Amino acid sequence: MTEPVFQSFPAPAKLNLNLLITGKRDDGYHLLDSDFRFIDLCDSIDIAVRDDGDIVLLNPITGVPADSDLTVRAARLLQQASGSTQGASLRLHKRIPMGGGLGGGSSDAATVLLALNRLWGCGLSREALMQLGVRLGADVPVFIFGRNARATGIGEQLSEISLPEAWYVVLHPTVHVPTATVFKEFSRQVLTGAVSFSTMRTLATTPQKQNDLQSVVCQMYPAVNEALSALRECGSPLMTGSGACVFLECGNEDQAKTVYQSLSSRFSGFVAKGLAAHPMFDRE
Ligand SMILES: C[C@](O)(CO)[C@H](O)COP(=O)(O)OP(=O)(O)OC[C@H]1O[C@@H](n2ccc(N)nc2=O)[C@H](O)[C@@H]1O
Ligand SMILES: Nc1ncnc2c1ncn2[C@@H]1O[C@H](COP(=O)(O)OP(=O)(O)OP(=O)(O)O)[C@@H](O)[C@H]1O
């Protein structure tokens, strides 16, 4: 029997450099206005094509059954949409903390769609893959889009943005923050008037450095507030996505490392470099 040939594909994390919640759709999904930046903390996925049509995740994450894993769901969705009879063995190397607002699961799904589209020779356009991706999660399209982007809609309307070089101190409070719970609580607080929807930015407005979910998450998870308070001694930090991770932007790597070292005995986290584009993005 021939050994399967695995190829390795990167799946980067993202930060939401700002996150305005501008409304709610009839189906309950929230409208947002957010600048997404890819960072150099990456999961990686080894993929080998199989000719029996099966999709097999060789090392499921503890607590996430293989059938629910976004990598497996992405592969099955592409099989269905393209009519491909080929299968794949997947091996997942997780480095992006889960439930951190860093988009790890969404990025894994996007990488599988991009990689299998090539390996199976499906020939779907980037746009078609993005439309498939949003069925798996609101954060999936931006990873397929492949460039740092301003996102509107629920995250599927994307336009490229150009960002300066930057490094980020990212702290990971040890709480798992479920995205659905946070949006639900935000919605409840809109009804009571405790929070309100933001207005979408006009082209002339400079991006507001705010995350509309932050106050809700800090109320629910004090550990997130503590991490923000610690970073505030060094600048103006923000939460990413629906949390739990918080970050501080720094102009150079030394500064970021110094800030992180001063906090690393109290918080887990890391220093990451902002990327100019997704590592799988090619500009031809
Ligand atoms: C907060 C962000 O991380 C910002 O990047 C994303 O909008 C979240 O995207 P995601 O993790 O891919 O979220 P999904 O898996 O699509 O949605 C999880 C749940 O969060 C809520 N949700 C999510 C995204 C969104 N724009 N509005 C929502 O109300 C919905 O209840 C949904 O059932
Ligand atoms: N490949 C995967 N990697 C991580 N989580 C996965 C994966 N597949 C399914 N999941 C499920 O998705 C949940 C959210 O994981 P993820 O790491 O994407 O959260 P997140 O970074 O907060 O996402 P976001 O910023 O998109 O809200 C996990 O708790 C897990 O149950």
Q: What keyword list fits this structure?
A:
EC 2.7.1.148, Alpha-Beta Plaits, ATP-binding, Ribosomal Protein S5, domain 2, Ribsml_uS5_D2-typ_fold_subgr, binds 4-diphosphocytidyl-2-C-methyl-D-erythritol, kinase, alpha+beta, 284 residues, isoprene biosynthesis, four-stranded antiparallel beta sheet, 10 strands, binds adenosine-5'-triphosphate
Structure overview:
The protein has 284 residues and is of the alpha+beta class. Helices cover 30% and strands 26% of the residues. Strand 5 and strand 6 form a beta hairpin. Helix 2 crosses helix 3. It catalyses: 4-CDP-2-C-methyl-D-erythritol + ATP = 4-CDP-2-C-methyl-D-erythritol 2-phosphate + ADP + H(+).
Question: What kind of sheet is the major sheet?
Answer: 6 strands, mixed
Number of helices: 8
Helix share, percent: 25-40%
Uncertain runs with pLDDT below 50, 5 residues or more? Answer: none
CATH class call of the largest domain: Alpha Beta
